[in-house]
């Protein structure tokens, strides 16, 4: 299964594609889409869409995992990130890729097994699980890879539950 993880934003969109065979992870490609701070916001959204469309066509993911948005303070930032997130989801859906959302708590639990894990712990476990020599930079890229790992845990759980339910019906 190829999973594309996304850390949404409008200045930096972290992305990471991994392959998961049910036991082992292997990183395929990862990086960040960046947009210039001074450019027109609409053009930033176009750039995010175009770059992500190309990434999706290259890595051909079976699923996209993206962070579920939550904001406490800055409404303007929240609205802009939500718009960028909409463009990201659109790129996935236009390419026939199903989209799954995960909260930061779900990522912490999936990657470290500890809901109170701090960002450096998540990044280090992501590095270890993917057998990388160093934590990918920028942080948004490492966050995206952690998001992809989270989906493999969630998909595995759902698959096991489905098999179990079918087994009970026999």
Give a brief description.
The protein is an alpha/beta fold and 170 residues long. Helices cover 53% and strands 20% of the residues.
DSSP strand content: 15-25%
Number of DSSP strands?
5
> Could you name the CATH class?
Alpha Beta
Instruction: Give the count of structural domains.
Output: 1
Q: Do you know the CATH architecture? A: 2-Layer Sandwich
Which percent range fits the helix content? 40-55%
Say what the CATH topology is: Nucleotidyltransferase, domain 5
How far is the N terminus from the C terminus?
28 Å
User: Radius of gyration from the CA trace?
Assistant: 16 Å
The strands making up the biggest β-sheet line up spatially as 3-2-1-4-5
String of helices and strands? EEEHEHEHHH
Structural class: alpha/beta
Mean pLDDT across all amino acids: 90
Overall spatial form: globular
Low-confidence stretches: 159-170
* CATH homologous superfamily grouping: Ribonuclease H-like superfamily/Ribonuclease H
Note the main attributes of this structure.
single chain, alpha/beta, 5 helices, 170 residues, 5 strands, globular
Secondary-structure map with pairings?
Elements: E1 2-7, E2 12-20, E3 25-34, H1 41-59, E4 63-67, H2 75-94, E5 99-102, H3 104-112, H4 119-129, H5 139-169
Parallel strand pairs: 1-4, 4-5
Antiparallel strand pairs: 1-2, 2-3
Structure explained in plain terms:
The protein is an alpha/beta fold. It has a single domain (2-169), classed as Ribonuclease H-like superfamily/Ribonuclease H (Nucleotidyltransferase, domain 5, 2-Layer Sandwich), CATH 3.30.420. Helices cover 53% and strands 20% of the residues. The protein contains five helices and five strands. It has helices spanning 41-59, 75-94, 104-112, 119-129, 139-169; strands spanning 2-7, 12-20, 25-34, 63-67, 99-102. The protein has a five-stranded mixed sheet with strand order 3-2-1-4-5. A hairpin with a 4-residue loop joins β1 (2-7) and β2 (12-20). 35% of the residues are buried. Residues 159-170 have low confidence and may be disordered.
């Amino acid at each position: 299964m190829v999973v594309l993880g996304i850390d949404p934003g409008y200045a930096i969109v972290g992305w990471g594609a991994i392959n998961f065979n049910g036991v082992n992870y292997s990183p395929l490609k990862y990086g960040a889409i960046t947009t210039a701070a001074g450019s027109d916001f609409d053009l930033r959204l176009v750039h995010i869409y175009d770059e992500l469309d190309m990434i999706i066509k290259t890595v051909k993911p079976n699923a996209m995992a993206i962070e579920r948005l939550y904001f406490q303070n800055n409404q303007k930032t929240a609205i802009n990130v939500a718009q960028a997130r909409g463009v990201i989801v659109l790129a996935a859906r236009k390419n026939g890729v199903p989209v799954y959302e995960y909260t930061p708590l779900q990522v912490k639990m999936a990657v470290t097994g500890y809901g109170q894990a701090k960002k450096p712990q998540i990044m280090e476990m992501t590095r270890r699980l993917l057998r990388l020599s160093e934590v990918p930079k920028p942080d948004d890229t490492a966050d995206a890879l952690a998001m992809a790992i989270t989906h493999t845990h969630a998909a595995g759980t759902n698959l096991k539950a489905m098999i179990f339910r079918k087994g009970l019906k026999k």
